[in-house]
Write a structure and sequence with these properties.
The protein has about 600 residues and is of the alpha/beta class. Helix content is about 55%, strand content about 10%. A hairpin with a 2-residue loop joins strand 3 and strand 4. Helix 4 packs across helix 19, helix 5 packs across helix 20 and helix 19 packs antiparallel against helix 21.
């Protein structure tokens, strides 16, 4: 039982004893005591005045006196108007610490029986993953792990956008300029290889548009409509949807190259999925739903043959669902995919981890599913996150100026290596172990720097800043864990076993126990907010508290063996909670650095 629940349960008894009233626990409001006052838990007594028929000050005083007189766990209290600040005793916090130390997985909440599906990554098969995808993948993975820590059954899924006009652009450019080359023949990673032709297509389109504008004196939009290469790509999409064997064979070959490249990047990031959906397999389901909606009058067809949904009554506009040539759009396949997923997993919540530029899309998706009669549309949640920028500005994939995920992972490794060598952090380790740690530190720095920012915020990523061994960074927490493990190894060499003893805790140790005790509540809070940033910053606060404690308090040199054993147990628990917190973020902690 956490401190708040404990105090509430006893305050219910106090109210019954003092005022003869039976009240439910939820009628007693509590909060953490503000830092300027002494106390751990504050009861807000204003809601109890109708029961006590007394002033806020007298009601608070009477309840405080009752709690202190009847509970050994309450050491003191003070009253500030209608706020009763209660300080819990050292014995209470010793009991709390014993409970935490006895737990095999502190912070893991009990099973909820709730099934949550999380979709993230969702790459296009015309380009490799880039920095924006990294934030998506790391956020999706950590949100999934966070929800698992909340006791939910979590299904991690990926929807690969493997069809559409953008895919056809790469295919057409390869036919025109590839000369039969492959990733194997060129030594270029498959997703990078295909992206080169997507860039090539846009260069070809830009040149053609420029020429049309000069020759025919039309604007860019009209020139694009007249561009032959774009018409060819659109014709290729129609061929693909009609099942043209030659087009489908080329599509399968080029997508296969991309998947091989994606697999390497996912493995390097530590990302895995429980199921992968493909747009090519679900867009027909979406088309069937659209036709069903058309027949029932939910949608309508325009004279050009295109199908639309009128959402003006919902405060939006009209949404295209099928083009005039019968080809589908993103919304089409999202409708079909959503229905398929609910049929397969009967989820209680469906979370889409997608950037905030798609806010409108998911608002529309939820509305249309509701209009189609799916009551589970209310279970859809768009985890909208801000874009990632670099000091040099934004990225543009069609111009080939993206910051590639593979290059960034390698850069993080190199930066971790350079920084570690400069500081001499890993000089005593064997070369193989150092290389492994460079990877762990680099990846941990990348993940932590991105995840610690609230998902809704746009963020600026600076690789060098992320690998600082001081401050709110992944390497700082990794180094803290390694330091604790070093102390515990030295204790083991001296045959000293961390153990729970009756020795009195210092005020600083009591504060650390309070932080440890708050971890399950922080997991629940972060889960409710879908924000692993709360866990990242919790881990930093805990690591910071340990380092201050280590600076101020003797551990191995403490002469009293019972105190030493309990202090060793305290730091052992700190290490375990850090591992649990960082595991939620997908970050490994080394035992030595």
């Amino acid at each position: 039982m956490n401190p708040s629940d404990f105090i509430v349960s006893k305050a219910v008894v106090a109210v019954k004893d003092l005022y003869g009233a039976d009240i439910a626990p939820d009628q007693i409001q509590t909060q953490a005591t503000r830092k300027e006052f002494e106390g751990d838990i504050t009861i807000v007594t204003f809601s109890l005045l109708r029961i006590s028929h007394k002033s806020p000050e007298i009601t608070s005083q009477e309840i405080g006196e009752w709690l202190q007189s009847n509970l050994g766990e309450v050491s003191s209290f003070n009253v500030v108007k209608g706020f009763l600040n209660i300080k819990l005793s050292p014995d209470y916090w010793n009991g709390v610490f014993a409970n935490i130390a006895a737990s095999s997985d502190w912070g893991q909440l009990p099973a909820s029986g709730k099934t949550v599906m999380v979709e993230f990554s969702s790459p296009n098969t015309n380009k490799p993953l880039h920095l924006g995808h990294i934030r998506n993948n790391l956020l999706g993975w950590s949100v999934s792990r966070l929800l698992e820590a909340n006791g939910h059954n979590v299904i991690k899924v990926n929807l690969v956008n493997d069809r559409g006009i953008h895919i056809c652009k790469s295919m057409l450019a390869w036919l025109k300029f590839g000369n039969g080359t492959t990733p194997e023949s060129t030594g270029i990673k498959g997703d990078h290889f295909v992206c080169n032709y997507y860039v090539k297509f846009n260069e070809m389109l830009s040149a053609e548009v420029k020429q049309i504008m000069e020759n025919e004196n039309v604007d860019k939009e009209d020139a694009e409509k007249k561009a032959a290469c774009l018409k060819e790509a659109q014709e290729m999409l129609v061929k693909w949807e009609s099942g043209d064997p030659e087009t489908v064979a080329l599509w399968k070959k080029m997508n296969g190259w991309v998947y091989d490249g994606f697999d390497i990047t996912y493995e390097n990031l530590g990302i895995k999925f429980d199921k992968i959906y493909y747009e090519s397999q679900t867009y027909l389901l979406g088309k069937a739903l659209v036709m069903k909606g058309l027949e029932s009058g939910i949608f309508y067809r325009r004279p050009d043959g295109s199908v639309w949904c009128d959402l003006q009554g919902d405060g939006l506009d009209e949404k295209l669902l099928l083009r005039s040539d019968g080809t589908s759009v993103y919304m089409t396949q999202d409708l079909g995919t959503a229905e398929r997923r609910h049929e397969e997993y009967n989820f209680d919540e469906m979370i889409y981890v997608v950037g905030n530029e798609q806010n409108y899309h998911f608002q529309v998706l939820k509305l249309i599913l509701g209009k189609l009669g799916f009551d589970w549309s209310e279970a859809i949640y768009h985890l909208s996150y801000g874009m990632v920028e670099l000091p040099e500005g934004k990225m543009k994939s069609r111009e080939g100026t993206v910051v590639d995920a593979d290059d960034l992972i390698e850069k993080m490794y190199n930066t971790a290596k350079e920084t570690s060598l400069e500081l001499g952090k890993l000089d005593d380790l064997a070369e193989e172990e150092r290389e492994s740690l460079y990877r762990m530190i680099g990846l941990g720095a990348l993940k932590y720097f991105i995840i610690k920012v609230d998902p809704k915020k746009t963020m600026l990523f600076d690789p060098k800043e992320s690998i600082d061994f001081n401050g709110n960074t992944g390497p700082f927490i990794q180094y803290t864990h390694a330091r604790i493990k070093s102390i515990l190894r030295k204790a083991a060499e001296q045959n000293i076993t961390p153990s729970l003893t009756d020795s009195q805790m210092l005020a600083k140790e009591e504060e650390i126990v309070k932080i440890l005790n708050s971890f399950p509540d922080k997991v629940a809070e972060a889960g409710q907010a879908h924000s692993p940033a709360l866990i990242a910053n919790y881990a930093y606060d805990l690591a910071k508290e340990f380092n201050q404690y280590y600076h101020d308090v003797s551990i191995l040199k403490e002469p009293d063996q019972q105190i030493k054993a309990r202090r060793l147990l305290l730091i052992d628990v700190i290490a375990k909670v850090l591992v649990k917190a960082m595991d939620i973020l997908g970050i490994s902690l080394p035992d030595r650095m």
